[in-house]
UniProtKB/TrEMBL annotation:
Keywords: DNA-binding. This is DNA-binding protein. Residues 2-29 form the ChsH2 rubredoxin-like zinc ribbon domain. It comes from Nonomuraea aridisoli. Gene3D superfamilies: 6.10.30.10.
């Protein structure tokens, strides 16, 4: 997984843009990150979610990468039940294909795939 990083202040950030949101520098680069994250918040959505409808219910989550940026994504690899979702739980990135796009999703770290 890659996100942008400022080469002036070393801040990782998401979403992608041509300048650093922290210091304004245009000296930015794409860099590989660990793919490790933690669960910040989530909902379990029971309604269809076009155009990417992988089947419902689906876990829509806010995760924070180990490098700092937060992003909206889906949690996979567990049943969509609050019993399986503990805030701050460690997560690991996986990639899924939907409608011709490759999207990052997250599974509990150490989960059996
Ligand atoms: Zn910066």
């Amino acid at each position: 997984m890659r996100v942008q990083r400022c080469t002036s202040c070393a801040q990782h950030y998401f979403y992608p843009r041509p300048f650093c949101p922290r210091c304004g520098s245009g000296e930015v680069e794409w860099t590989a990150v660990s793919g490790e994250a933690r669960l910040v918040s989530y909902i379990i959505n029971h309604r269809p979610l076009p155009p990417f409808d992988p089947g419902t219910p689906i876990i829509v989550a806010l995760v924070e990468l180990a490098e700092g940026p937060r992003l909206m994504t889906n949690i996979v690899g567990v049943a969509p039940d609050p019993e399986n979702l503990e805030l701050d739980m460690p997560l690991k990135v996986e990639f899924t294909q939907r409608e011709g796009f490759t999207l990052p999703v997250f599974a509990p770290a150490g989960a059996v795939a």
